[in-house]
Design brief:
The protein is an alpha/beta fold. It has 2 domains: 178 residues, Glycogen Phosphorylase B (Rossmann fold); 146 residues, Glycogen Phosphorylase B (Rossmann fold, 3-Layer(aba) Sandwich). The chain has 12 helices and 13 strands. Helix 1 links the parallel strand 1 and strand 2. Helix 6 packs across helix 10.
Length: 351
């Protein structure tokens, strides 16, 4: 059985939660996990903390110190004979780790790629460069959707083996996990807000809805750009949302809107599935691999079509109820244990 060393060095967000779910289900396997000391999410079980960086200012000198840690780590690797290096998501230090491992030890590298090609306006040139290097220097890649795999193979290129293993469903304590009925007609956009997330398009879509057809729209998530709107029916929460706040927000809303103009996959959709919240989703990228047309309202990425999808849900309680029931059924079929086993099988096949 392969000895695995895992680096999950992010501090917050869905990718960090993804890593914990995957690694915690490596039950009965010989693996070591390194995580960031500054991680604000729940850390993987039995993980060892690394002194990473908290901001851009610390990045430069903390990276220099990390090199000394890697030199020390080479001795540990030789002693314990780890043969597989696994990255559950991109981090700026991943490429540096790969270089050290390739120089000092024959170690196979497996990476889970969430995006591959960064979204419009999302990330720096350095991030895209390092992301490409990690892909190119990996021996095997795990993609979350066929859409991302096809895009990476076409635009970046990759000579190793690749697999598609879907994103799991985040089970969050306190979050409603039963079929809903349409009550307050409250709309929700949730997650980190970048230009490609289509918030402006969603806000414009409200102009095509009758004034009394919905109660409010909440936009909850940290913005990457300046944005404001003057409407008493729109509430903007521009901050990183804690898990307790997430639970309160989802439990108090009725319809989740995913108005993206481009997408690979969405961790927010997985939360929507677990909370059985009917969704209006733009049919872009790999989103239709996470949901099918019997589980959500898919629309083209325009304000008018988003409004049409919302109107369909807001005015049809029977449709709303049936979608919520299907989401409950779907949430019971996507197990992190199965996903983790699939990833471990990929790792075990590495020669």
């Amino acid at each position: 059985m392969s000895k695995i060393i895992v680096f999950s060095l992010g501090r917050k967000g869905g990718s960090v939660r993804y890593a914990k779910k995957v690694v915690d289900n490596f039950s009965g396997t010989d693996h070591t996990v390194y995580c960031s000391r500054y991680c604000i999410e729940e850390k993987p079980l039995n993980s060892t903390e690394i002194n990473t960086y908290k901001n851009n200012f610390e990045f430069i000198y903390k990276t220099s110190l990390f090199i000394f840690f890697l030199i020390k780590l080479i001795y540990i690797l030789r002693k314990h004979k780890y043969i597989v290096l696994y990255f559950p998501y991109f981090h700026y230090w991943n490429y540096l780790i790969i270089v050290f491992f390739k120089i000092f030890k024959t170690t196979k590298v497996i990476s889970t790629v969430h995006d591959g090609i960064l979204h419009t306006g999302d990330g720096l040139l350095l991030e895209q460069y390092l992301n490409r290097k990690v892909i190119q220097f990996s021996d095997s890649i795990i993609f979350l959707t066929k859409y991302v795999r096809n895009k990476v193979l076409k635009e970046i290129g990759f000579n190793g083996t690749s697999f598609v293993i879907p994103h799991g469903i985040f089970e969050i304590n306190g979050l409603v996990n039963k079929p809903r009925v349409l009550k307050n007609k409250k709309l929700l956009f949730f997650g980190r807000v970048n230009k490609y997330k289509g918030v402006e398009m969603l806000v414009d879509a409200l102009n095509y809805l009758p004034e009394d057809s919905f109660t409010s729209l909440t936009i909850a998530g940290k913005f990457s750009y300046n944005y404001s709107v003057n409407s008493t029916k729109i509430d903007i929460i521009d901050k990183w949302i804690t898990e307790a706040e997430l639970v309160a927000i989802f439990n108090n809303h009725d319809i989740l809107v995913i108005p993206y103009t481009e997408a690979t996959q969405s961790g927010v959709i997985s939360i929507g599935i677990y909370s059985c919240m009917p969704m209006v989703v733009t049919d872009v990228g790999g989103l239709n691999e996470q949901l099918n047309k019997s589980e959500s309202i898919f629309v083209k990425p325009t304000s008018e079509n988003i409004a049409r999808g919302l109107k369909e849900l807001l005015e049809n309680a029977e449709l709303y109820n049936s979608l919520s029931i299907r989401l409950k059924q779907k949430s019971e079929t996507i197990s992190w244990k199965n996903i983790s086993n699939s990833i471990f099988n990929v790792i075990s096949e590495v020669k």
